[in-house]
Amino acid sequence: MGKSLSKKKGVAAFVAADDESARGRLLSAATRLFCKDGINATGIDAIIDEAGTAKTTLYKLFGSKTNLVHAVLESEGKQWREWFIGAIEAGGGDAQTKLMRIFPVLKTWFGEERFYGCPFINAVAEHDKNQKQFRNIAMKHKKVVLAHLEKLAGEMGAAEPALFAHQLALLIDGAIVAAMVSRDPAVADMAGLAASSLFGPAKTKRPKRAGVSAELAAV
Fold first, then answer.
1. How far apart are CA 57 and CA 12, in angstroms?
2. How much is the pLDDT for 202?
3. Where do the H-state alpha helices sit in the chain?
4. What is the mean pLDDT of residues 85-109?
5. Average pLDDT of the chain?
């Protein structure tokens, strides 16, 4: 009885390890193909061929192509955020110094051979704009990045940290799309130049706008 139970546990552990290995290969293959060729243009057969797994394994582990896409985006988002935040934090310095590292860091990424743009922007762009599934994942990713930018903006002394973070995020997104289209890493320099002009004004408090009711009362 004891030997039988031990054997079953050993088999279960082997199967679990094999599934984990297959999952990693499928995620890696799907990530490369989705980013390079597009989600809609990439079929299941291409993914399993590159991953070296069976179609049944893919469906066993992910259930569907859509679930695989979700898993890829979650995985890619986590890895990218860890890289990006780690890179701008590396070397220390004050908050403004860290924020000024953003575009040199992006330029390094833009220069990589396997730079295919932002997987979230790409996923939303190639699907029905009324679909919320990919947009929700993209917004979840964006909120984490924005939260870190806003934290640094507050530490820097920005009068409106949330506004400043959104301004930087717009420049980041624009630079990513421009670099993907042009294949020119130098667009990061231009975006960085635009960002540098925001730092001074960001620390200046703006006069509060009157509330809607007050504005209407003044008419």
1. 16
2. 87
3. 2-37, 44-51, 55-62, 65-89, 95-100, 102-110, 119-125, 133-156, 161-182, 187-202, 212-218
4. 96
5. 86
Residue 78 phi, psi dihedral angles, 5° rounding: -65, -45
Q: Identify the burial level of 165 via C-beta atoms within 10 angstroms of its C-beta, where 0-12 means exposed, 13-18 middle and 19 or more buried.
A: buried
Q: pLDDT band for 169, please (50, 70, 90 cuts).
A: very high
Question: Residue 99 and residue 23: Cα distance in Å, rounded?
Answer: 36
pLDDT digits (tens, 9 = 90+) for 26-61: 999 999 999 999 999 999 999 999 999 999 999 999
Name the one residue in this structure whose structure tokens are 């054997």: 7
pLDDT of residue 3: 54
Alpha-carbon gap, residue 10 to 214, rounded angstroms: 73
State whether residue 41 is helix, strand or coil: coil
- Structure tokens given for 152: 């640094």
Q: 87-112: b or e for each residue (b if 16 or more CB lie within 10 Å)?
A: bbeeeeeebbebbbbbbebbbebbee
d(CA 188, CA 84): 14
CB 58 within 8 A of CB 47: yes
